[in-house]
Amino acid sequence: MLFRITGEIIVPEKLRQTMLSSSAGAYCSYEGWVRDHNEGKDVNALHYSAYRELSHTIGCKILDEAESKFKVKSAIVHRVGDLSVADIAVWVGVTAHHRGDTFLACRYIIDNIKHRLPVWKKEVYSNGEEKWIENNHCGCSDPKNLQL
Amino acid sequence: MEITVLYFGQLAELAKKSEETKDVFDPSLYALYADLRKAYNFPQEFTQLQVAVNHQLSAHNTELCDGDSVAFLPPMTGG
Q1: Taking CA atoms, what residue in A is nearest to B58?
Q2: Nearest CB neighbour to A135, from listed B12, B55, B77
Q3: Residue A148 pLDDT > 90
């Protein structure tokens, strides 16, 4: 289990190396990227802020839940600070004996990051305006993953 | 009693600080947030926020004790 908040660029290839295991038959990862638009506005950058102490507690709890529920090994790395378009904001890695559990666990983890991890993002638009995002409810999350 | 208030995200930007120490007499989180909201024009109602006391998520009716740290948390938007 690995949980980390970092101000450094996320390099998935390096993180993948940390997941290698001779007992794992499957690996699944998720990368959240900074895209150049949201709700009709051109986005130039994102700023992420985290409550580090509480993030560690909740991040490890999400991983622990995923590992118990799906019998996987799992990891989260979330970046903070100023990010540019195409940067990786969050990386999730999961391994298991079989692929089915890795897909399910990976989605469980990112769904719960979106709703529970104490991290906040501000969008910076091409016209110079800025806005703190008020919710992450894009409809992507599986409701079953959010019932604790 | 002396309380350390921690600010993150939008609330840190509006308060122009990441933390401060407050002398408070009322142990209720509601009263503390009402004072802060008035001082810094925080947009959220108390019920829209989660609360962390001493770095643990806590119930809204938690009573503060001398030396506690408190953070009021808008809806999370990580990922």
Answers
A1: A54
A2: B77
A3: no
